[in-house]
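REQUEST ID: PR-0412
SUBMITTED BY: lab tech R.K.
PRIORITY: routine
TASK: structure prediction, single protein chain
INPUT:
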Amino acid sequence: MDIKTENRKWKAAGRFPSEILFLTGFLTGTILPNMIWKMEWKQKTLASFYLIRNFAQKDISGGAYFGEILRRRGGFFLLLILCGFTVFGVPLSVVYMLILGLETGMVLAMSVLEFGLYGGLAGAALLLPQYLIYVPVYFWLAGLVYRQSFGIWKNYGLFPAKNLPYLKQVITAFGVYTGGIMAECFLNPWLVEKIIKYLKFF
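STATUS: complete
OUTPUT:
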């Protein structure tokens, strides 16, 4: 492997601004529901919480939807990894970090708008514990994909020997990410169900 070429590729790409992109999306996600709320959302019922749950794409059914979560989460994860070998990895990694922040911000903002403090807790329940794993892994993966793809943009080439470090890191990232999928499938539904049952008393 040409170490100098590899180092030059990573230095040229620079540090991927995962945190800035995520926070930009997050702030946008918290502002949009407030604007929509003034126009349409006025009802404060358990049915509206069901809307929030659907937005987060959760189905409180335990292990029955493991395959769906694996397909949805794992499929995009694989797509992001593969895009690292193309010029599409650069824009995709940027766009996804914005979307990840947007989704997180909207779920929390919608929950608070509908149910106040209790809604904020419910919104957090929609994201826990899997997002404690997803977010750091995506920060890491998006940076890897961005720099790998940036090398294609700069015509450093696509050679097996140079891609080995990238492959090792993304495989490790997927191993950690799998833990998040398991948490979303088996821990998150239980947590959300408990919160919804608690909200029925209000």
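NOTES: The chain is about 80% helix and 0% strand.
REVIEWED BY: pending
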